[in-house]
Design brief:
2 domains; Alpha-Beta Plaits; 29% helix; four-stranded antiparallel sheet; Aminopeptidase; 26% strand; alpha+beta; 394 residues
């Protein structure tokens, strides 16, 4: 028999839930397509300052970043999030306008509803409720937000982390508010992520009339052999903690098409998702060693490296994970799964700053899709999990 959610009357007042709904609607209604913040961060900073946070907003190459701090000393706990969203796409395919934050049958629709303005709104309301009765707690809280997570992520959380390091700031633990759940809020905690890197390979040939193949060098034919060789690489199968490594060809381009002329060049783009058994250097070596036997001359370049990270759940002295697991159980009646699946996140940057990094958020079934949405029930559950966690930590 499932345990009933832990919902003390004081922490579950209707007015607080209505404020949570209002907050996420206000955030969704601020179009903030990467790297545009849409004034979300000033909106957050204004509310955090009312709570007593010291807020610093800085802009870097068109990216808006926020570092907000409350309190002093240890433990130092951070929350990481982003205000930017992916483009809405064809708005005619949305049930409601993508930045209207319309409510329908228990859901709030809008771009960013799940990824991840829900996490920002839930953490903000949890902070408001926690500090109402615990303003003098021992320790410090950091609220770290960027408008550059969905894009290149060069001037967002990476820059925030470097700034904090220059100030000799370290965090004991960090929560990332990404949408991690599969079915309902709290069913999954991400304890790490695989690495990712994109590559571009170019092979040049000799263009000419296809009726005279002895006068041409067709780079597409050579690239076909390269692709076949890449697909035969025996990658690791992963472990209990990490999914296995994989390579996917994402684009093939041989320029303008004429059906009786061979192209002079062929490009492929590919992406590798890799476990902690690999590094950029070792990946480059295996790719080069695979290509060399089938192509004499080529150019390869690498882009958008995302390093793998994982918090060892068995680390001695770990206190955040047990508190998070207990908070989830008290609110939902379920024990969460620990996972490293999915794409990349800003957790990879804060992992160099914090001893423990965990991602916990609402369900992710509709992220980046038409009619992205989040249920009000999942919002309230996430707010309560965050509130329980704050209470247990401090």
């Amino acid at each position: 028999m499932l345990m009933q959610p832990y919902l003390p009357e004081k922490k579950y007042r209707a007015e607080e839930s209505l404020r949570l709904i209002r907050y996420i609607q206000e955030l969704i209604r601020k179009p903030s397509i990467t790297p545009n913040d849409g004034d979300c961060i000033p909106w957050l900073a204004q509310r955090l300052q009312r709570l007593g946070f010291e807020c610093q907003i800085f802009n870097l190459n068109g990216v808006t970043n926020l570092i907000a701090k409350y309190g002093e000393g240890k433990p130092a706990i951070g929350f990481v999030g982003h205000t930017d969203v992916v483009p809405a796409g064809d708005e005619s395919r949305w049930l409601y306008p993508p930045f209207s934050a319309q409510m329908h049958q228990g859901f709030i629709y809008g771009r960013g509803a799940a990824d991840m303005k829900s996490g920002l709104a839930c953490w903000l309301v949890a902070l408001e409720q926690f500090l109402q009765d615990n303003a003098d707690f021992n320790g410090s809280l950091y609220f770290l937000v960027t408008s550059d997570e969905e894009g290149e992520a060069e001037y967002g959380t990476r820059a925030i982390v470097e700034h904090l390091k220059q100030q000799n700031v370290t965090l004991d633990a960090c929560i990332v508010g990404e949408p991690t759940a599969s079915r309902f809020t709290g069913d999954t905690i991400k304890v790490g992520r695989r690495g990712a890197i994109s590559g571009k390979l170019t092979i040049e040939g000799k263009a000419g009339h296809v009726a005279y193949p002895h006068h041409i060098i067709n780079p597409v034919h050579i690239m076909g052999e390269v692709i076949s060789a890449l697909n035969q690489i025996q990658w690791d199968q992963g472990s209990q903690d990490f999914p296995g490594t994989s390579l996917q060809i994402t684009h093939v381009d041989s320029g303008d098409f004429v059906d009786n002329v061979s192209p002079h060049v062929c490009h492929i783009h590919f992406n590798i998702r890799y476990s902690h058994q690999w590094s950029e250097k070792s990946l480059n070596e295996v790719i080069v060693n695979t290509i060399n036997p089938v192509a004499d001359e080529y150019r390869i370049s690498w882009d958008r490296p995302c390093f793998p990270y994982m918090t060892d759940a068995n680390t001695q002295g770990s206190y955040l994970l047990p508190a998070l697991e207990k908070s989830i159980f008290e609110v939902t009646g379920h024990h969460p799964a620990l996972s490293t699946s999915g794409g990349t996140s800003d957790g990879r940057f804060v992992a160099t700053l914090a001893g423990e990094v965990y991602e916990i958020g609402v369900p992710n079934q509709t992220i980046h899709q038409f009619n992205e949405r989040v249920s009000i029930a999942d919002l309230i559950a996430l707010r309560d999990i965050y509130l329980q966690l704050l209470t247990k930590i401090f």
